[in-house]
Amino acid sequence: MTYAADGLAVLEAQLQQDLEYLELPAKSWVPERTQDGAPVRDVVVIGAGMCGLAAVAKLQFTGISNVVAYDAAPAGLEGPWVTFARMETLRSPKSLHGPALGMAQLTFRAWFTAQWGKAAWQALDKIPKAQWMDYLIWYRKVLNLPVRNNVRVNNIAFADDLIALDLSGAETGRIYTRRLVLATGRSGLGGFAVPDFLQGVSRQFWAHSADDIDFSALKGKRIAVIGAGASSMDNAATALEHGAGAVDLLIRRKQMPRINKMTGIGSQGVVHGMHQLPDAWKWKFVDYTATTQTPPPRSSTLRVSRHANARFLLDCGIKAVKEEADGLLIETTQGSLRYDYLIAATGFSNDFHGRPEFAAIAPHIRSWRDGRYQPEMGAPRPGLLEAPDLGPAFEFRELTPGACPLLAHIHCFNDAAMLTHGKVSGDIPAVSAGADRLVRGITASLFAEDVEQHYANLQAFDTPELQGDEWVDSTPLLNQENAQ
Asked: Which pTM does this prediction carry?
């Protein structure tokens, strides 16, 4: 591709002009607060991946400027794109707006075309994952978003009417914020979903698909990969490309899933209407798509099958995994199989009780199993039952009313919100709509909380519009005329 050296500078100038015309960011309006002599943040966002960046950008556009995002990763390594996401390209169509927040100059297409031109855009099939990361780095830079890297939040607590966060890393100590947004991605509130048959098996012999795996160490080895999803294919292909001796995909289903159902009904109706549906309909949609399963991309599957030493073992459920001296013995519905190493592409869990930083809030968080799910909705699928029961702005709801009122000031803007809100806080297609929904709610709650201060400001405002010399009071003349 031919690179246009000044193309990006031109785009950035256009973007700045658009922001100026739209008066963005809006003027700051939230009253300042202090706690123990230190300034209090209006909003802290945990996570500076795509959702975290979109949330911070929308907050600033709305005039909530006293915000910061913390990410434990070094700059440029936030999110999955260049870490545990092992696909070659994104699965989403290249034309989706992503985190652009309704601004054409903020889209990936504008960023790409400014540098490589329209012909290159037309020739592009899917977006290379590393290029998407480059775009997000630019997005953060061009909007001058307040992100602090290499900072981990170790504990969430409450102090009076504020949320206290204990930090370590590049920034340490305790800070206070009025609202907290958990933009923690696929892992949501929990972490890796690990099947029971792997409990107690030495990590010497297996990894989760989102682990930092040394694939070069798997050269020449016999590898098993659990599952038939996109992550399974990406990890299997990566192992094969690093010289694995043989890779078997152990697939419980009798047939590969082939149809991506949600893609077929994708629309603005789904984006804006799903979270307004009755709970029974929400459950029905998500349960059905989980039952039919999302297929892996065609390109990812071909990336595996082009290797002669790859096998797709269907109707191959796992009964047990046993350690041996030099590997694993896996008992399956197709018989006993031996491997040197296993990769579990088994997804993530919303069991937030296992995360130490959430220890103070976990017992108070209401999930769908706590009354929102009703048996008439359908089968009690565990992965859905553990989803948090969220309010209209992604805020947590209390398990016991009144036991933890400030829980409503913590917003779950990550994949765990899907059952309540639809897919607007984890995937590329609707993240801008999700950020808008989140920030509208935070804006309204902050304004309501400070309503007395805003009313006092209304009363105190005394800058005159009129100076007194713009008119003459004719009432005395009228009175004289009427007296005659």
From this structure: 0.95
